[in-house]
Amino acid sequence: MTPGPGRRLIPAYLVTGGRTVPAGPALDRLAVLIRTDKDLPPGAGTEQHRLCELLEPGALTVVECAAHLELPVSATVFLATDLVASGHLRGRPPIPRAGEIDRSLVERLLVGLRSLH
Predict the structure, then answer these.
(1) Entry's Pfam families (predicted)?
(2) What is the C-alpha R_g of the chain?
């Protein structure tokens, strides 16, 4: 059976090797992935090679990688977790959201800047 438009030849769940739990602590879907200089072993799968090639120019989040690879985020988490555990990728936690700024601090800063003028 040949895949139709937009269908993968190999189902995405095979990318995980049939596992239901990643090899290490699962990465957050917004974790930033960075490629290391370490070469992949000869037995590495096609999707692992594609993920490392995708990260060659710079860092991306797990979700961005999933979109580029056209894989479910959960399968990409497995791939990335395995590659982080083996030292081929580095994973950095997502950047936390900025907190609220104290309005009185901003007002005092503005008063101070106006007094310099």
Answers:
(1) DUF742 (PF05331)
(2) 21
Tokens of 34: 């960075």
The CA distance from 64 to 83, in Å, is 16
**Which of 58, 81, 62 lies closest to 72 in space, CA to CA?**
62
Q: Are 79 and 48 in contact (CB under 8 A)?
A: yes
Please, which residues have CB within 8 angstroms of residue 33's CB and are 6 or more apart in sequence?
Answer: 27, 51, 55, 59, 60, 61, 62, 65, 80, 84, 89, 90, 91, 92
Collapsed DSSP state (helix, strand, coil) of residue 61:
strand
In this prediction, residue 21 has a pLDDT band, given cuts at 50, 70 and 90, of confident
Q: Where are the domains of the chain?
A: 12-116
Residue recorded with tokens 């070469």: 39
CATH class name, domain 12-116:
mainly alpha
Task: Say whether pTM exceeds 0.90.
Answer: no
Higher-scoring residue by pLDDT: 35, 7: 35
